[in-house]
Design brief:
By secondary structure, the protein is an alpha+beta fold. Helices cover 33% and strands 31% of the residues.
């Protein structure tokens, strides 16, 4: 499973440059089928330190691709870091769904 990011910058007449970040997941597994029947949970929710906005993202939106409008490079860096955490969350969810009804040994 990997996350593909596309960064875009657009010129704005008022307020200078406008930034956009598009993300999507690629996987050898059919993740939509894997999570079919499970609640569509949040994998990302936070209040941005650099922009006056709250960001939330459900698993289904992350799987099919999402687009974010940003106000600064700092906000883009913050979002990319949070998206990495969301990717880790989806990986963990997939691992859990795939291993139901089996014994799992966790190491310290």
């Amino acid at each position: 499973m990997k996350m593909i990011l596309r960064r875009t910058v657009k010129s704005g007449l008022i307020g200078g440059k406008k930034f956009e970040l598009t993300t999507r997941l690629e996987s050898e597994k059919d993740l939509a089928a894997l999570f079919k029947g499970y609640p569509d949970e949040l994998v990302l929710a936070y209040k941005s330190v650099f922009g006056d906005r709250s960001v939330s993202l459900k698993r289904s939106e992350f799987l099919r691709g999402a687009r974010f409008s940003l106000t600064s490079l700092n906000e883009m860096i913050e979002l990319e870091e949070r998206l990495q955490t969301a990717l880790d969350q989806v990986r963990r969810m997939a691992e859990i769904v795939e291993t139901f009804e089996t014994d799992i040994a966790l190491q310290e």
